[in-house]
């Protein structure tokens, strides 16, 4: 800015020359300077007032908007929070296909102690032991009278226990809010649900996390606050699950089996409507994993239908027959010579109980469960094509069933797949899989030739995967399986009105450290029903069954797993909405005439 002098020399000299007063020039310049200063000050003040006005306008607008939102919204209670790091609470529910609760949340309390605040530690210890008998009085007294400033007494207590502890009246015993996971159906579907536990904990909150089953598989979804009102819907049917577990438990006891499993699967959608593994446990009080022993199946936590990887025996024969039909090598009426002897290298291939069926059709190979018959079919197929077919059925990878334990069910296949392996695998020995793998394989036969992936989630409509066999091949396989029930080793498996089709399988049980037991077997019955319009697959497996019938001890699936499966189908088929198809009665020989 250019500053004009108050007494410019040129003007002063000029004024003196003309006889004018020089002070007039100075007064005029002072006046102009003051007017300029006032103009600048006014402009500056007006700018500040404008900015201040805009600030107040924005502030009052925000406050007014917020007041409007509060006035028009519903009041909600805030979630419990802990000081410091936030601990997420509120886990989404798990429901069955009909929306019935399988897992939910329950508000409860924890109880903890701050010994410096306690008045009578010894008396408090006495009363706490009376309320919680599993506590040790000596340990409590030591903790209460020592240097500790904080200790948990119980992390979950019932309302009755809370009242009893409250009545002690010691100010050093305090309560904290808790949210615990509740499984209202107890042991029902325990291996599917898995269980939960506490993650991060504070005195004012605790984080519930999944430790097994779908609780762990979908832990991120269940813990997401955005899904609090969106329960995880499973494909299980609670009513069917209860019936399956009840019948399976009775069958396990009658057949003197060590354990049992059952998988009921929709052959078109892949939905597992029921899956049971016995012995079971209560997820409300999940036991600890075993720390000793070599046989994992001794623990109730062992999930037999996905972790139970065994050679399943003759239930695999239908896959060999179906592949041979698919390749055009045979049809169900083609004659196969099953007579002996048959050797692969130095290993003889024999039949059960030394039988010799001679020349029989491919259908009768399945009906009589001929090892030599399926072995000769497998030699025509060849090792490479056999591997490709079984791989297409998902027999080489862990099943995609959505529980964490399924990843541990890795099938066991031979390192060297030669002629001997080709033959033995054709009748279910040399390749170890789980009942869930078997269910997916039989579903492909039942639904007309498509692989379907087993799922625990609710699905709508068919979920067909790649085609693994033609519809004609699948139909011939269905007819062979039906004949096994009507004329073969599964005669105890027929259920009036539902036309059961299936195949039995009995395999020696492997020892945990290698080799096989001489007197222990895994008995399996794989079924599809109803055979006239297949909708469901049922796999029943018994671990070490043994029953005395007609004066003999019997372990084969035809005497053990088959009757259990028949009872299961008779019980659950009506629950699945399947109406029995009864043969029409013969009409009376009456001729109607006019009057």
Description:
Residues 261-555 form the Penicillin-binding protein transpeptidase domain. This protein has 595 residues and is of the alpha+beta class. It has helices at residues 9-18, 22-72, 121-131, 137-145, 159-166, 190-193, 213-217, 219-223, 238-254, 304-307, 317-326, 362-367, 371-381, 383-392, 419-426, 435-446, 471-487, 561-572, and strands at 94-95, 101-113, 151-157, 173-182, 195-201, 206-212, 232-233, 259-266, 272-278, 335-337, 343-344, 347-348, 359-361, 501-510, 516-529, 536-543, 547-549, 552-554. The protein has 2 domains: 94-135 and 144-233, Penicillin-binding protein 2a (Domain 2); 239-576, 3-Layer(aba) Sandwich (Beta-lactamase), CATH 3.40.710.10. The strands form 6 sheets. Strands 1, 2, 3, 4 and 7 form a 5-stranded mixed β-sheet that branches. It has a 5-stranded antiparallel β-sheet with strand order 9-8-16-15-14, sandwiched between helices. α3 (121-131) packs antiparallel against α4 (137-145), α11 (317-326) crosses α13 (371-381) and α13 crosses α15 (419-426). The protein is elongated. 40% of the residues are buried.
